[in-house]
Each structure stands twice: as structure tokens, then as C-alpha cells.
Automatic annotation (TrEMBL):
Keyword Kinase: no
Protein name, as recorded: G domain-containing protein
Coiled-coil parts of chain: none
Matching InterPro entries: P-loop_NTPase (IPR027417), Small_GTPase_ARF (IPR024156), Small_GTPase_ARF/SAR (IPR006689)
Statement: the UniProt record of this protein carries the keyword Thylakoid: no
One Pfam family matching this protein: Arf
GO biological process: Golgi to plasma membrane protein transport; intracellular protein transport; protein localization to Golgi apparatus
Keyword vocabulary terms for this entry: GTP-binding, Nucleotide-binding
Gene Ontology CC: Golgi apparatus
Gene3D superfamilies per the UniProt record, alphabetical: P-loop containing nucleotide triphosphate hydrolases (3.40.50.300)
One annotated GO molecular function: GTP binding
Organism, scientific name: marine sediment metagenome
Length: 241
């Protein structure tokens, strides 16, 4: 049955009162069946927010004392969501079951008695444009940015570096992030069995040169990572350094 055929009540954003769209709600929650989505839609006790108000609402959490904010950026299929789970849970049960991030996924974890909010930002083209356009909602209060690149997908090197440059060559975004920001670039999917292969070594060399050629106003580190060699020490290093 199509969404248009459903006799659904109108829902509005609890904050700005703009009308919400049931089809968009289902698209952002693909794990839900249509019947479950309808049950939630009709539940008057649930708060519904538009994307802009949701970001503002979640962002307020980050002003809690001693709560650090980590942004994870990159292209689709670069491994951002897997890294988010590894940082939060320290293990990854079934990598194949992970779905691409739609919009923003915010996960919270504790490390060394400190609280950290990990923002996994969707990497699809519409989302990438949105994060730059809504920079004043996304980038404030960030302590660290982790930029993830799939080291095996050389066809995307130019476009992912272009996006990287659009962020870190933007004076407005860099001013929002502040001079104390810590930036970590991950050459991800450097799996143990190919880590020292000529192809991977060449890709690492190419990407390193491209990144070093950008006038980045922050200190940054470059690391090679893989879900198959990720361990708590790497998680601690990424979240603490």
C-alpha cells in the first residue's frame, strides 16, 4: 500500500510546528515495518521533530559540563558507522548488518570517567551538502573531528579529498571549530592481509600527499585502521588524543 493511500493524521514538529511527512519518517527509519511506523506516528505521547529542530535539540545535550563531542565525517561506505560502534562498544558483532547512516546518529559513551558524544554524520551527497550549509548547527562545541577514507577505493580519492578540503579550507567552519580542534584522518579498511601490499602503500602515499597539500589550520594525525585490527587501545587513542 502506498503512503498516499494511508489515511494518516497530520503530525507537526513539536518545536517549530512545521508539518511533517510520513514518507520521510519511514525513509529515516527503514528498520521499522509499515505497521510499526504507523503505530509510532499515531502515538500522541511521542515527540516528533523536523531535521533542523532535532539537530538543535540534540546539540543542547553537548553543553552539559565535561561532555566531549566527536564528529565522524566521510563518504558512504567508508566505514564511519563501524568505527562509531567500535569506539562506543569496543567490539563489532556483525559488520554486514550495519546500514548507512541516514542523517545524524549520536551515540554516547564513557571513557576514563568522561562522557563523549559521537556524531556519525551521513555521507550521502545530500547530507554532505547539508552539514556544510548548516555548519552553525553541526560544528560548534566539537573537540575532535575524525575524517574516514576508504583506502581501498581509489576511484573516490579525488571527491573525498575535495569534500575534506571544502570543510577544512572553509574559514567559517574553521572559525566555528576553533584553533584547539583535534583532527584525525583515518585511512580505513587497511586490513591486515593487504596492509603492506604495493597497491595499499601507493594509495597511502597518494592520499598523504593530497592531504598535506591542503592548508589545514589545525594539527592533524593520519592513521591506518581496520575493523579486523581495531582494539581498545586504538579507541582510547582516538577519543583521548
Amino acid at each position: 500500500m502506498s503512503y498516499k493511500q494511508e489515511n494518516l493524521k497530520k503530525r507537526v514538529c513539536w518545536k517549530c510546528k512545521n508539518q511533517l511527512n510520513f514518507k520521510h519518517f519511514c525513509g529515516s527509519n527503514k528498520s521499522l515495518s509499515l505497521e510499526r511506523a504507523k503505530d509510532l506516528w499515531f502515538n500522541s505521547n511521542l515527540e516528533f521533530f523536523c531535521c533542523k529542530c532535532y539537530i538543535e535539540r540534540e546539540g543542547k545535550i553537548l553543553h552539559v559540563s565535561e561532555l566531549k563531542k566527536v564528529l565522524i565525517l566521510g563518504f558512504p561506505n567508508s566505514g564511519k558507522t563501524a568505527i562509531t560502534h567500535l569506539l562506543k562498544d569496543r567490539y563489532l558483532e556483525d559488520p554486514e548488518s550495519l546500514l548507512p547512516t541516514r542523517g545524524i546518529s549520536i551515540q554516547f559513551c564513557l571513557i576514563n570517567n568522561g562522557r563523549i558524544a559521537i556524531w556519525d554524520l551521513g555521507g550521502a551527497s545530500t547530507y554532505r551538502r547539508r552539514w556544510i550549509e548548516r555548519r552553525e548547527l553541526i560544528f560548534p562545541e566539537s573537540n575532535k573531528v575524525i575524517y574516514v577514507i576508504d583506502i581501498q577505493d581509489s576511484l573516490l580519492f579525488n571527491v573525498t579529498i575535495k569534500y575534506f578540503s571544502e570543510i577544512f579550507n572553509s574559514r567559517e567552519i574553521c572559525d566555528i571549530l576553533g584553533p584547539e580542534l583535534k583532527l584525525h584522518v583515518l585511512f580505513h579498511k587497511t586490513d591486515p592481509d593487504i596492509r603492506n601490499s604495493p597497491t595499499i602503500n601507493k594509495n597511502v602515499e597518494i592520499l598523504t600527499q593530497k592531504i598535506n597539500s591542503i592548508n589545514i589550520p589545525f594539527k592533524y594525525e593520519i592513521s591506518k585502521t581496520s575493523i579486523y585490527s581495531f582494539n581498545p587501545n586504538i579507541s582510547d587513542s582516538l577519543l583521548n588524543s
